[in-house]
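Friendly challenge for the regulars: who can give me the C-alpha cells for this chain first? No prize, just bragging rights.
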Amino acid sequence: MTVSLSDRTLTTGYSAAISGVQTVEIRPQVSGMITDILIEEGESVTKGQVLFIIDQTPYRAAHEIAVANVMSAEAALSTAKLILESNKNLYEQDVVSEFDLMTAQNALTDAEARLALCKAEEVNARNNLSYTEVRSPVNGVASMIPYRVGALVNSNISQPLVTVSDDSKVYAYFSMAENQMLDMVQQYGSLNNAIKQMPEVELMMSNGQMYEFSGKINAISGTISESTGSVSIRAVFNNRNHLLRNGGSGTIIIPTTLTGCIAIPQTATYELQDRIFVYKVVDGKASATEIQVAPQNNGKEYIVVNGLEVGDVIVAEGAGLIKEGTVIKSKSMEGQE
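First reply, four minutes later:
Bragging rights claimed.
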C-alpha cells in the first residue's frame, strides 16, 4: 500500500464507578424505637419527605415540660419586675434600704436569666421532638432498609436507616495514567482548557450496551495518586430515565479525533524487542524500517508519528512472514482502506 494522509477517530476505554450526584446516609438524631416506616425500599423520595418516625412519647412529654417551664419563668420574671418597681418607690420614701433595692434588682436579673434558659431548653426539646420525624434532605431514590418497626436506634448506629441517592444525574469516576494526563494537558494547554474543550464521552454499561446519553468530563483531580500513579477524573451524565444507579459500574469511552495522520494496518507491522517495524518496498525489495506509533489505536490500525512519509510504499499484510531483502511484487492500494 502507498502511505497517505487520512482522518481517524480513536477511542480509549476506562473502567468507571458510578455514583449519584448526591448520596446521603440518613441516620437518626435522637434515640428511640422506630414506630413507623413510611417508604418502600427503592422508592423515589422528595426533599423534606418523612421517611421514619421514632417513638415520640418521651420527646413530646419533654417538650410540654419545657413549655411549662417557660410559662413559669415568665411569671417569675413578671413578679420580679413588680417587686423591683415597688422597692424603688419605697426606697425613694426611705422605707426600704439600698440592700433591699439591690436584692430586688438581682432577683430580676436572675429571673431574666432563668427565662432565657427555659426558652433555650424549650427550643432544644422542640427540635428533639421534630427529629423523631426523620426526613429526607434531598430528592432521590431510597436504598434497602436494614431496620424494621420496633428496632431501637440512635445516632451511633453502624448502618444508616436508609441511603438516599439523587440520581437525576450521575457521576462516573475513572482514573487515567499520569502520562496520558500529561499528553492531554499538552494537547489542550491546561487542565481547565482540557475540561472545556474535550469532546463528549460515552458510557458502556456493565451489560455491554452503550448508554443513550453522552456525558461531559467536568472535573480532573489536581493530584496524582502515590499508590497508583494515576489521576482521578469525573464525568457527568444525565440520568432522567433513572437507568443508572448509585454504586454501578461501566466503561468510559473517550474519543480522540486525528486529522491528516498516517494510519497503517497493524498487519503491516511486526515487533522486535519492543520495537515496531514495517517493510518499505525500496527498489522492489523489502527494507525493514522502524516506526513510532501513537499510544492510542483502534485495535486494527496504528497511527504512525515517525518513520514513514506520504508516498512511501509498504507491505500491507503478512509483514511477519517475510525477511529483509525479499523481492516484492508491488500492487498499489493507494486510496483503499
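The CA atoms of residues 5 and 260 lie 5 Å apart. The helical segments are 57-92, 98-131, 178-188, 191-197. Your move, everyone else.
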